[in-house]
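The protein record quoted for completeness.
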Amino acid sequence: MRQTIEAVVVAGGRGERLGALTRDLPKPMIPVLGKPLLEHQLLWLKSFGFSRVTFCLGYKAEAVRAHFGDGARFGARIDYRIEKEARGTAGCVRDLALPGDALVVYGDLFPDLDLGRFLDFHQADPSAAATICVWESDHPLDSDLARMDGDRITGFFRAQPGQRFENVALAAVWAVRPSLMPLIFEDRPSDFGRDVFPEAARRGLVLRGYRTQETLADLGTPERLEAFLKARRA
């Protein structure tokens, strides 16, 4: 199963919300529990059989390459795709021109998810253009939220203060099939949550939601990073 899907970590953003933490380091290289966040991700992927991983990079990519090299010292093979201009979280995946499915993980996420169960869920429905991890977010007002009908995602929205809504947030881990790639812009940046998935839903493509309560911690702001570290050290 692990050989039929490519693992891609999307980590090209500047991480501006992290302020001084990313002045000298790219976002995926911020230290978390004794090692760079991206190293946690690589070891997590390896633990589920992914010995080859592609890093899609942009801002300060040289810091990532200096730490990881070809991946041999981590028992993995690392390929790099370094953007010359911003392509967005979806554009960089399309540019890889992968022949099959891709497991996509965002570089500001600390994951502790059973990937075996997630990928089994994904592969159980070959008609799905994508399988998307969803969970109850602790910051729903600035999260991409999904409308669900059973395990099928029927639409996406952003909550407004005072509005009642079901807190089912996209958790930045998804498996995407080649049928989704034509919806990704070729000539400008494109984001999965804001552009590609909503367009897929409008066109009636099957999108499945994998509900989880496992740890998929978004560390994209100083406050979220501090809260995560505090909880882990408690």
The mean pLDDT is 92. The longest strand covers residues 128-135. The domain at 2-233 is CATH 3.90.550.10 (Spore Coat Polysaccharide Biosynthesis Protein SpsA; Chain A). The helical segments are 37-47, 61-68, 88-95, 115-123, 192-202, 222-233.
